[in-house]
Amino acid sequence: MMLAKLHRAGELTAVWVPDAAHEAMRDLIRARATAVRVLGKARQHLQGFLLRHGRVFAGKGWTLPYRRWLTTVRFEPRCPASCPAGLYPLRV
What we know:
Elements: H1 2-9, H2 20-52, H3 64-72
């Protein structure tokens, strides 16, 4: 009865139920947004790691020259005297 009264009074709003194609597109958009967020976080972590270890690129970040520079960055293990040889985990 209540729905009939609300409908007669014009108080109900029409809704559209998305079909499977629209839901798939929404899922794709959400997945892309998540991937972009994760990529940004990973870049931020890498930048912080490089900065803490004194590796700074002179040019602009995340360009082709920067990515090439990243492939040349090397780290020598700083194993304390108590750490047996070959067990230091940092191999970048």
